[in-house]
Amino acid sequence: MNDKTKVCVVIPCYKVRDHILGVIKGIGSEVDLILVIDDACPENSGAFVGKNCVDPRVRVLRHAENQGVGGAVMTGYETAIDEGMGIIVKVDGDGQMDPALIPFFIQPIVSGEADYTKGNRFFDIEKIRAMPAMRLFGNAILSFMTKLSSGYWNIFDPTNGYTAIHVEIARHIPFNRVSRRYFFETDILFRLNTLRAVVVDVPMDASYGNEVSNLKISRIIGEFLLKHCKNFFKRIFYNYYLRDMSLASLELPLGVMLFVFGVLFGGYHWLDSAYRQDPATTGTVMLATLPTLLGIQFVLAFISYDIMSVPTHPIHSVKRSILKSVIEYPK
Known about the structure:
By secondary structure, this protein is an alpha/beta fold. It has 11 helices and 7 strands.
């Protein structure tokens, strides 16, 4: 690991008083600063940490009003940037994330392989049996929606909050626009894709003790679906029309128009034929079928292009190389 890279851990706190000290105790010496964000916790987690934790790396920040996990993490990001940190790791305070894994999250960033890393609890099939069935089903749905809206087709487990980010990427995130509640993790992925940042999954085990999760997937599926749709259209506009144009920019609208025409035309004539009890002509059937099939093919071609367009060149690594070349070869 690069000795010059300072690591900060951000821990949002809300109803985690029984676990927070154990989480802090498990954080290794590779971390330089630990920011505990008391998000107006009714258990006064911040005061509890300040009174009972003697780790000199720990600093407690308090919110006067609850801002959600996203708001707490953004406060941590801003503070870490101001403190000159190089990598920011986000760990929940409920004990479900093993702090011993922090080196595995920061290593791909330090080595220049990634701009952002996140946990993936679905790597080991045998060990995910401990995960509740409803959570497994919910994560599968959320993961697919996240792939569509964020453009990161190579990742899974989007609601996993165990993450690490290079500070040069964090600087460009619009903190005031990021979702403040449980959509935070997936909204961050959308923001990262608009920056063309490289995201890498880090395998980790699912850990469930006596802690109670505040996230109920069955309650947020509908809300997440609406937000994913919004992010999907924004991403498509940014990446395929505003900042770049390619063949895929034509395939998507053409495919949608052909598909809609084929379905509407075919549906109308099917109902008309049923009402008149007169079979549609071969030409009518073909005029409905051909645009529908072509539309599907164009949309699939667009998705294939989108999958192949997943960012592969870490931004912070490229910036570092450019800066180094400027310093070594000044004009």
